[in-house]
Amino acid sequence: QRVVLMDPSEDPDDILRANRSREKTFVFDVVFDHRATQEEVYASTTKSLIGGVISGYNATIFAYGPTGAGKTYTMLGTDCEPGIYVRALDDLFKALEATTEEMDYRVSMSYLEIYNEVIRDLLNPSSGFLDLREDPSGSIQIAGITEVSTTNAQEVMQLLMKGNKQRTQEPTAANKTSSRSHAVLQVTVMHKSQRKAIGEEVRIGKLFMVDLAGSERAAQTQNRGKRMKEGAHINRSLLALGNCINALSEKGGSWAQFVNFRDSKLTRLLKDSLGGNSRTVMIAHISPASTSFEESRMTLIYAYRAKNIKTQVK
């Protein structure tokens, strides 16, 4: 459960800085090394949330970390090593098939990206930029997003692969296929009892799976011009997310501190998933290379703060 981060530039014989060592230990719920398989990562992070989604809780999975550390691989995976998206939906459909006796259910999903603070539909890219709206009950909706109803994980995989090709990817010095946007897969499960009772209860559970764009330092990615602007937007929305996480993890709960969800589209969309009625998992990715020591350090501090968020799930 521990990550020990050693500073590569530290000199063990330097007497003056002996007690200013930047070696840090972070404790998490689970830590994986490079030998971990997709199945192991999925089983210990996401598998336990699926049952909750079916019974009407929300769940969110984040992939966070510097550019090139493997977020898209964890979430989407490859054809022979599928990632969390596909495994989670597979389990979801299996669990729903087991409960079909007296329940009607509907599963709908949408896949979108947030690029330079605008929202694009990845399943229907020609629809242009979409707006975020709040409906009367206070939940955030995206006007005009394509929702696909399906009960087949294979179908979903094809849609996701197609959607992922529409994602804004550009090569940078740090990563040949760097994702320049945050991708959000939103799966809504609606449950209804078949027996027509008078006070019929409908349970709605939402599952968000978010593949964030890599946090990046322009010095490392050697970005100029347009790429540099994108990087600034990426870092801005990650900073907004970080501010929300900080405010939520402060002692005294969410009433003591104002949480500014309106700073970026990403945090507005994930408002319920961060501070609201939701179980949240953050999978932080770091690179073992000594050149990315700073990024690894910031990522671990960020993820460690996220661990302190306490929400009341109803």
Automatic annotation (TrEMBL):
Domain Kinesin motor: 1-309
Keyword Ribonucleoprotein annotated: no
Residues engaged in binding ATP: 65-72
PROSITE patterns for this protein: KINESIN_MOTOR_1, KINESIN_MOTOR_2
Protein's cellular compartments: Cell projection, Cilium; Cytoplasm, Cytoskeleton
CDD domains: KISc_KIP3_like
Domain of life: Eukaryota
Keywords assigned by UniProt, alphabetized: ATP-binding, Cell projection, Cilium, Coiled coil, Cytoplasm, Cytoskeleton, Microtubule, Motor protein, Nucleotide-binding
InterPro entries linked: Kinesin-like_fam (IPR027640), Kinesin_motor_CS (IPR019821), Kinesin_motor_dom (IPR001752), Kinesin_motor_dom_sf (IPR036961), P-loop_NTPase (IPR027417)
A Pfam family the protein falls into: Kinesin
Family of the protein in this entry: Belongs to the TRAFAC class myosin-kinesin ATPase superfamily. Kinesin family.
Annotated protein name in UniProt: Kinesin-like protein
Source species of the chain: Mesembrinibis cayennensis
Lineage: Eukaryota, Metazoa, Chordata, Craniata, Vertebrata
Name of encoding gene: Kif19
